[in-house]
Write a structure and sequence with these properties.
By secondary structure, this protein is an alpha/beta fold. The chain has two helices and nine strands. It has a single domain, classed as Hypothetical Protein Aq_1857, Chain: A (Sandwich).
Length: about 110
């Protein structure tokens, strides 16, 4: 499978990358935390490590370490605006449950 981006997510990443010449794409990962087990970590990638897996969608490189990929393979990344709030959101087909606040998940 792969990681995919909605048009809104790709446009958000693209607009940021145009302002920062040192970044080459989006880095997506997970960390153990929260009441359900894992939460997403999203940053802009400045380099690709030897073990990293790289996908490309809508002209954006998505960089992921292999351990995180096992938990988020098939995820669609979106960028949503709701009033004054805006954030990346994730549709992960591997999720078995989420905490009540939506900040963490388990697989």
């Amino acid at each position: 499978m792969a990681i995919s981006l909605t048009d809104a997510a790709a446009e958000r990443v693209r607009s940021y990358l145009e302002k920062r010449s040192s970044n080459l794409g989006l880095r997506l990962g997970v960390t153990k935390t929260g009441c359900s087990g894992y939460s997403y970590v999203i940053n802009y990638a400045q380099e690709v490590g030897a073990d990293d897996v790289v996908f490309e969608d809508k002209g954006i490189k998505v960089v992921i370490d292999p351990e995180a990929l096992a938990l988020i393979d098939g995820t669609e990344v979106d960028f949503v605006k709701n009033g004054l709030n805006e954030a990346f959101s994730f549709r992960n087909p591997n999720i078995k449950g989420e905490c009540g606040c939506g900040e963490s998940f388990n697989v």
